[in-house]
UniProtKB/TrEMBL annotation:
InterPro entries cross-referenced by the UniProt entry: ConA-like_dom_sf, DUF1349
Signal peptide: none
Pfam family, any one: DUF1349
Protein name as annotated: DUF1349 domain-containing protein
Transmembrane intervals: none
Source organism (scientific name): Streptomyces clavuligerus
């Protein structure tokens, strides 16, 4: 099924996903969610910049999970230009969001995070081999946590943070994104999608 204006219902998720931002050609079939960022599409507010360019946006599919959760997927990216990425994201407000990325940064595939509170930070974690990695983003209370994995079994802690007010953090949207800040477009694929309605048992113990 595919429709840039339609709600997507994935059997792995207990809530619908709704498109935000420019059209991403989102499609779901046989357990695989695919989408594509267009040329120069990204969501990033430079730390030294004055404001978010209203044209700065990227295709997102977002939902409104309640309570603590874990959203994970195996992400494969059709890297073509620096900073192309497949992303798990949370969004608490217009200028309050975070991204956990498998990104070409700028020459090697890398696990990266960006947390935006008015302006964005940008942090690389580690390089990976190939075009595929497992990503997981979680909420625990009003905090969020990012993890990555080579096999979807043992998870390595990347960072923890919060966004906005207590209410904003607890009602934040979560989902999927594609970006191609410097290139002509980037295809992304998410499979092995899982959702759990509780936080990880420990943030730093591999669970």
């Amino acid at each position: 099924m595919t429709d840039d204006d339609a709600t997507l219902h994935l059997p792995e998720l207990p809530f619908p996903l709704r498109p935000h931002g420019p059209g991403g050609g989102w499609s779901y079939e046989d357990g695989v969610l695919t989408g594509r960022a267009g040329a120069r599409q990204d969501r990033f507010v430079p730390p030294a910049g004055d404001a978010l360019d209203p044209a700065s946006d990227a295709p997102r599919l977002l939902a409104a999970p309640t309570g603590d959760f874990q959203l994970a997927a195996r992400v494969t990216v059709g890297f073509a230009a620096p900073f192309d990425a497949g992303v798990l994201t949370v969004q608490a407000g217009e200028r309050e969001w975070a991204k956990l990325c498998l990104e070409l940064s700028p020459r090697r595939p890398t696990i990266c995070t960006v947390v935006t509170r008015g302006h964005s930070d940008d942090a690389n974690a580690w390089e990976v081999e190939g075009d595929t990695a497992w990503l997981r983003i979680s909420r625990t209370g009003r905090a969020f946590a990012c993890h990555a994995s080579a096999d979807g079994e043992r998870w390595t802690f990347v960072r923890t943070f919060t966004l906005g007010t207590d209410r904003q953090a607890r009602t934040a949207l979560a989902g999927f994104m594609a970006q191609s800040p410097t290139g002509e477009g980037c295809a992304v694929r998410f499979d092995r999608i899982t959702y759990r309605p509780y936080a990880p048992a420990g943030l730093r113990d591999g669970s």
